[in-house]
Amino acid sequence: MQKYSIFSLVKNAFSNHEKWDLAWKDPSPKKEYDVIIIGGGGHGLATAYYLAKEHNITNVAIIEKGWIGGGNVGRNTTIIRSNYMHDDNALFSEFGMNLWRRMSQDLNYNVMFSPRGIINLAHSDAQMNTYARRGNSMRLNGIDAVLLNREQVKEIIPMADFSDNVRFPIFGGLMQPSAGTARHDAVAWGYARQADSMGVDIIQNCEVIGFDVSAGKVKGIRTSRGDIKAKKIGLCVAGSTNILAEKLNMTLPIETHLLQACVSEPVKPVLDKVVTFGAGHFYISQSDKGEMVMGGDLDGYNSYAQRGNLPTLQHVLTEGIAMMPFLSKLKMLRTWGGIMDMSMDGSPIIDKTHIEGLYLNCGWCYGGFKATPASGWTFAHTIAQDRVHELNAGYSLNRFSTGYLLDEKGLGTKTWIS
Amino acid sequence: MLYIKCPHCGMRSQNEFSYGGDASIKRPELGKETSNKEWDDFVYNRKSPRGKHWELWQHLSGCRQWIKVERDTATHEIFNTLKANEDIST
Ligand SMILES: Cc1cc2nc3c(=O)[nH]c(=O)nc-3n(C[C@H](O)[C@H](O)[C@H](O)COP(=O)(O)OP(=O)(O)OC[C@H]3O[C@@H](n4cnc5c(N)ncnc54)[C@H](O)[C@@H]3O)c2cc1C
Ligand SMILES: [Zn+2]
């Protein structure tokens, strides 16, 4: 594989950039692989990369029904953080933060990781108390957390509404200075390029339509491009998890819901943090191009539509304008949506299943982009060793029946309001 | 914008309703021995199909009644609405 560097850039300039190698090949599926990963999103691509890199398993195929990066990995608002209270979530996410910090070097691909910090705003004394508690839990787990008072928040984001007669005055906030954003497409492409270079087959335009299971063991998959055999198969299909689960006669603690996001026209640099509104569900950051990147609530009812509905967008942006009034002057550039695998306790599942050789990775809810490296790393371990790693032991499938739920927000099973 | 025909009030905009999830889920019978599996299926496990889905909605800013709606989760087409006490099979 060609290494990307200042020297290769200069060298290729002499040939008008026409002689760059393809970043990954376009192979036809083989008859059999050691491992098949279904879904060429961030998690599937990262899993294949870590299977090859950490476990020397390179006879691997990624099967993607569309094109890699066309799902949620290319639709999210790129927030990366580990500001969780519960140990299982905190340790898993912080392990991921360490992978993010060296990802560009590791993948030889600029993923534009930007640890600019995230602030969760508080709008009451009670909320300040819960943030103090969460911040302390984070620090006990070695994660950076700073509790800010109103004046400190005002210094950092003076454009927020600090006037007196607002419905939700800003009391302060909890900041994780090391949180941030990254370029989502680059994450998918960087993992794809490295996985491909180590021998992984990336097979696009190939839809999995069924499974070959006998005597409790998985034997292979049926696809739109023929049957493919493998003794180990990993599911990384995010919002399509229930569709494939049905073909395996499994009913999962997952529902598919639609999440929208939008960007404004680009403006000059105004906001150098990720900020979340604490009295509703709205978050915002500014992209390198200058667009304000915004998102919030789910559309609120089961959906596979991959496009959103205006009432929700209006609701979310109303919160945004309450928090930062200047937003009302901006024109909207684009809105889009992605179908999300919402789990019943808001935490993901990375586990084995009752079918031998079948592994499950799903339930990412709002936070699957930041989990991409840690999810790929632990899922690769789970598949290669046929046992979960301690980092994903809390993300078991049977926690719902045993009662060991990981409900970070304490919101219960109504996935559409979580 | 969805338009939902409330069986009590007629056609109204989505803004008047709030969602209540899968309407086909049945609570295990009271007083009967319930296995963990049955309880699990009732509380957590959902089919969440792509296509026709019977679901509960509440006409919150209207008559406040819970109703059942048959909607396509990919196209949002609404086929049928029922009162809460009417059976889905009818
Ligand atoms: C609007 C929006 C904003 C978000 N913001 C954030 C954020 O700020 N921070 C954050 O951490 N997370 C965020 N998320 C969540 C995050 O994007 C997802 O949780 C994560 O991307 C899911 O994992 P993935 O990348 O593997 O999924 P995907 O990219 O969706 O990959 C799944 C792939 O499986 C393929 N597939 C499905 N069915 C089949 C089949 N039968 N055969 C073959 N292939 C199949 C799909 O085509 C798709 O490419 C956001 C999501 C959305 C929609
Ligand atoms: Zn009504």
DSSP strand content of chain A: 15-25%
**Number of helical regions of chain B:** 1
The low-confidence parts of chain B are none
Task: State the order of secondary-structure elements of chain B, H for helix, E for strand.
Answer: EEEHEEE
Distance between the termini of chain A: 44 Å
Mean pLDDT of chain A: 97
- How many helical elements of chain A? 11
The beta-strand count of chain B equals 6
| Alpha-carbon distance between the two ends of chain B | 27 Å
CATH architecture of chain B: 2-Layer Sandwich
Cross-sheet strand order for the largest sheet of chain A? 5-6-4-14-15-16-13-17
Question: Strand pairing plus helix content of chain B: what structural class?
Answer: mainly beta
Hetero compounds: flavin-adenine dinucleotide, zinc ion
As a percent range, the share of strand residues of chain B is 35-45%
Query: Helix coverage percent of residues of chain A?
Result: 25-40%
Quaternary organisation: heterodimer
For the record, what CATH class of chain B applies? Alpha Beta
Which features would summarize this protein structure in a list?
heterodimer; A: 418 residues; alpha/beta; 11 helices; 28% helix; 25% strand; B: 90 residues; mainly beta; Folate-binding fold; 6 strands; binds flavin-adenine dinucleotide; binds zinc ion
Briefly summarize what is shown.
Chain A is α/β, with parallel strands linked by helices and about 425 residues long.
Describe the structure.
The complex is a heterodimer of chains A (418) and B (90). Chain A has helices spanning 6-13, 42-55, 87-101, 103-107, 125-140, 150-156, 184-197, 241-247, 310-323, 372-385, 399-402; strands at residues 35-38, 60-63, 79-80, 118-122, 146-149, 172-176, 180-181, 201-203, 208-214, 217-223, 226-229, 232-235, 254-264, 274-277, 282-286, 292-302, 332-343, 349-352, 358-362. By secondary structure, chain A is of the alpha/beta class. In chain A, the strands form four sheets. Chain A has an eight-stranded mixed β-sheet. The longest helix of chain A is centred in the N-terminal third of the chain and has 16 residues, at 125-140. Chain A is globular and about 70 Å long. Chain B has one helix spanning 36-43; strands at residues 3-6, 10-13, 18-22, 52-58, 66-72, 78-83. The mean pLDDT of chain B is 95. Chain A binds chain B through residues 242-243, 246, 251-256, 300-305, 309-311, 344, 400-401, 413-416, and chain B through 1-2, 14-15, 18-19, 21-22, 36-37, 40-41, 43-50, 53, 55, 71, 73-76. The structure holds flavin-adenine dinucleotide and zinc ion (ZN).
